[in-house]
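Note to self: the last two entries modelled the partners one at a time, which told us nothing about the interface. This time every component goes in together.
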Amino acid sequence: MIYYFLAVLTGFFLTLTPVLNGQNTLKVGSKNTSFYHFLSATLTGCILFIILGSFSDIKAIPSVNPIYFSGAALGLFVVTFMNYFSPKIEAIYISLLPFLGQMVIGMLIDILMLDLFEIKKIVGIGIVLLGIAVMNIKKTEP
Amino acid sequence: MAYSIAFITGIFIAGMVYINGILGSQTTPYLSNLIFHSIGLMIFTLFILLSPKNKIPPWGWALFIPGLMGTFTVVFNNWVVPHIGVSLTVALALLGQMITSITIDHFGLFNRKIKKINLFQSIGLGIVGLGLLVMVF
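The predicted structure of the combined assembly is written out below.
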């Protein structure tokens, strides 16, 4: 149950982070905002690592396949792409298309790598998409 | 073009969550988060150094908090994905995003224009919740 709650909380952070970063961008520019974002994330990450991790964990780094360090590069693409398409497409597609992309690849990863395929997930995703579509129905002014 | 990029961004997000998850399982969730953000910090430090006209503003809480959330986003993902999978994590995060954005709009938080929640948004949110329940149970 705690994992479901944490996943929802992640969504809370995912929405709030760009809102706050957007305000910072207006004040200090996007480069400084991104710099400070990663600086404070690294500092907080250091503190979490010191408290909850162990320095012996660092020994594992050389044996990690370098391809798994590419997550950060993907993250930079995500930020750049979001800045590109967000002003260009309708609001409904800003949430719908990345969600679809995540779901398609998420399903493939779950099936192929984690062995977690379930038909109820496909049904659930269909219902979630319907919900997003309903949320974005434009209220006609009387 | 923008539509395809939006779809591809979703693929990248899922890939990023998965890759960080693997990195987390091969090291620890905390170390993989630290690696992820250190690489980002190195890249943006380089950007700053390459633009000498740019002046770095003094540090403040407003500049600190988003990064703090960034760290917890990655750490939580690293905890959650191995237990409930990528698709359910993404779907639940989407619910969190919807609730947060509707709340921000409804109350006009963070100096944004007030946009009261309408009937369709309430019904839609209910349907999204129902879809998630189907995925979970």
